[in-house]
Amino acid sequence: MAHPLEAIIREASAAFGRDNLGAYLRPCTADSVFNVPGRGGIGGTYRGKEGLYELARKAIEITAGTFQEELEDVLANDHHAFVLARHRFTRDAQPMDYRTAHVYEIGDGKLAACWEQPRDQAVFDDAWGPPR
């Protein structure tokens, strides 16, 4: 039987895909943290609601609104959740495509922290390019 957080994460990701960041943030704690590795235009640590809005703003700007996330699998328990995803977008007229994992820490039944873990860091860095 799937953990209830699996459905919540799927719904949140679908909301993000519809540019409904508010619905994406509902299952997050008020002080949630999203960590993105690398030296690309979105690399860094984003804290709280404002931080996640900043991350989304950067991603939309860099991809000219073409960012798409396809969930390949979601696993969750009371302490952690794991999302396997494929990201696609166009950047500077070039198609970008890579696979990644989001590793979540759960706090009080909500998404408290996330670490992006690209399958191939070099491909991820190339996709997001240098900071602008």
Structural write-up:
This protein has a single domain (4-128), classed as Roll (Nuclear Transport Factor 2, Chain: A). The chain is built from four helices and six strands, in the order H-H-E-E-H-E-E-E-E-H. The protein has helices at 4-17, 21-25, 48-63, 121-128, and strands spanning 28-36, 44-47, 68-76, 80-91, 94-107, 110-118. Strand 4 and strand 5 (94-107) form a beta hairpin. The protein is globular. The N and C termini lie far apart (45 Å). The mean pLDDT is 93.
CATH topology value? Nuclear Transport Factor 2, Chain: A
CATH architecture classification name: Roll
User: Which descriptor suits the 3D outline?
Assistant: globular
Mean model confidence by pLDDT: 93
**Beta strand count:** 6
How many angstroms does the end-to-end distance come to? 45 Å
* Helix segment tally: 4
List the uncertain runs.
none
- CATH top level assignment: Alpha Beta
Overall structural class, as computed from helix and strand content, comes to alpha+beta
Trace the largest sheet across and list its strands.
2-1-6-5-4-3
Strand content: 35-45%
Main beta sheet strand tally, sense and closure: 6 strands, mixed
Radius of gyration: 14 Å
Q: How many domains?
A: 1
Q: Sketch the topology as an H/E string, one letter per element.
A: HHEEHEEEEH
Helical content (DSSP H or I, runs of 4+) = 25-40%
